[in-house]
Amino acid sequence: MEDILSDWEDRINFLSDHIVELESQLQYYQNLVSEKDTLINSLVEENNYLKLQGIVNEQPISMPSVSPQNLQYEIAPQINNISPPNLHPPPDVGISPEQSIVPSVPVDYALNFDTGLRKRQCPKCGAQGFAIKEVDDKSRLISYLPHRIYAKKRVCIKCRNEF
Fold first, then answer.
1. What is the pTM assigned to this prediction?
2. In degrees to the nearest 10, what's the CA dihedral of 20, 23, 25, 30?
3. How far is residue 98's CA from residue 156's CA, in Å, rounded to a whole number?
């Protein structure tokens, strides 16, 4: 019988401690709400004061309307400054210098003008053609079926660079 009473007393003590803890949390949150209300009131008073002084404008902020034609005229002078010198076609082609912008070629590729294809090129030593091997990259599996297919990686024979 004493065991049952001690269990009940322990339970009552636990619950009373829990009630005290919850009351302290409630008091904390009530303080936060009152601080928030005082802050809101002070900001409203400051806003009203600034309105009386004429500092705050009551009109809503509107975004300027931009048409695509305006954007084209703003961007076009920047494109003219980007084009590299001496890369314009001869005047008999009929293309103005503003229309001829030459795209940059990535480092690991060189454009082959004979066939229009891209050659492989090592980014480290600049070797091209047969000096570059393509091997399976066993760390990147693409497919299991119909058989295992791996991604390819390039290896330079001259400097052993993998890319």
1. 0.29
2. -160
3. 39
